[in-house]
From TrEMBL, chains A, B:
InterPro entries: PhoU (IPR028366), PhoU-like_sf (IPR038078), PhoU_dom (IPR026022). Belongs to the PhoU family. It is found in: Cytoplasm. It comes from Companilactobacillus ginsenosidimutans. Plays a role in the regulation of phosphate uptake. GO terms for cellular component: cytoplasm. Residues 17-103, 120-205 form the PhoU domain. GO terms for biological process: intracellular phosphate ion homeostasis; negative regulation of phosphate metabolic process; phosphate ion transport. Pfam families: PhoU (PF01895). Keywords: Cytoplasm, Phosphate transport, Transport. It comes from the Bacteria. Homodimer. This is Phosphate-specific transport system accessory protein PhoU.
Length: 227, 227
């Protein structure tokens, strides 16, 4: 028996949320692998990324079919379009988890800086938290929560700046710190990007509710004075 | 008089291509600003990013209307969905141009390493070239060209690795090189990402022609041995 459109839509939502959890788990694991120098876990993240990619393709196909066969309008169409667009954000999160996992493998046996690794771990928790909260706002279709989650993005960038500054100092102090310090800076930049994608998810939650595309991300333009 | 669906579709294509050119120009200018230490140009890139973001929103709205009002199927729907999805890739390119522009402003008056800046400029040319070629493949709906363009992505990653290695050496040689060296590494990572987005555009071209979602990106998994 052919399922109703409503059933299909619920299923689409569910599968999107699952994809979100896969992406969130990938980030969590990649940071864990990175700070624990756990190459086996890093390889697992890289290996499992194909499931996230596959899920995006599945969601694209399913959304396409639903639009083509059922021709939904207004709020139903909006839900399908949201899944179609926001699944890209989740897929990119997975890509960044892979990049962090690759750094785990690349930077092996180097001098480590435990204080900065602690900060990276904290920033990883912060990023994963924002991703999970953005998915919760999506599941609840809660615009207010989505806006609050997006506001946390500022904390990520403050944390990120502190990590960058600490890396620069450490590398200037000793050339032994250059390999690990430059790696921390890259991982920090990936985590900032992950948080940006979570903010995009929040923007989609608002769109889902209101039909309006909003800009929740805070632009972090360097505010130095002109020369 | 209401325009025909075909006219609307052509218009959508055109506006997507224009968005691609805006993104491509932003990357070109951001790299130019970065290597010429041109903060005014960097600010222009940051300022103009809102036009790229606005264009994505416009394309989303237009695509949504076309689906809701005209209920296209098969290849027509595929074209609209492609614009809906691929416009995210162009928007992200713009974001990375902004990140490069922000680095131009952040790293001011530091010791520079001309040889590496030359390599960054070359890599910028390579990335912008790939972006432009991917857009040409899109306009021509040429799957063969799209696959060839995606193949060039490997060169970007080779070039990127060389830049990274040069930065690490320079920073290890002298602490005076730490600020600029770490900045070059970040800019290099942004350019690699831009090239990944261009590869995504190529994948969309193949989808447009065949209805099949393909994976053209080469995964650059670190290939070090297990410990």
């Amino acid at each position: 028996m052919r399922s109703t459109f409503e059933e299909q839509l619920n299923n689409l939502h569910l599968r999107f949320s699952e994809m979100g959890m896969m992406a969130s788990e990938a980030i969590m694991k990649s940071v864990k692998a990175y700070v624990n120098h756990d190459k086996a876990l890093a390889r697992e993240v890289i290996e499992n990324d194909r499931f996230i990619n596959k899920r995006e393709v599945d969601l694209e196909k399913k959304s396409f079919e639903m639009i083509a066969l059922q021709q939904p309008v207004t709020s139903d169409l909006r839900m399908v379009v949201t899944v179609l667009k926001a699944s890209s954000d989740l897929e990119r999160m997975g890509d960044h988890a892979v990049s962090i996992a690759q750094e785990t493998i690349r930077v092996k046996g180097e001098v480590r800086i435990p204080e900065i690794e602690k900060d990276i771990a904290d920033m990883g928790d912060l990023s994963t938290g924002i991703v999970e909260d953005s998915l919760e706002a999506y599941l609840k279709e809660d615009s207010k929560m989505a806006k609050e989650v997006a506001d946390q993005d500022g904390n990520i960038h403050i944390e990120g700046k502190q990590i960058n500054d600490a890396c620069i100092s450490a590398m200037q102090q000793s050339s032994d710190n250059v390999l690990s310090g430059s790696s921390y800076m890259l991982v920090e930049s990936y985590l900032e990007r992950v948080s940006d994608y979570a903010t995009n998810i929040c923007e989609w939650v608002v769109y889902l509710n209101t039909g309006h595309v909003v800009e929740l991300s805070q632009k972090h333009v360097a505010d130095e004075d002109e020369e």
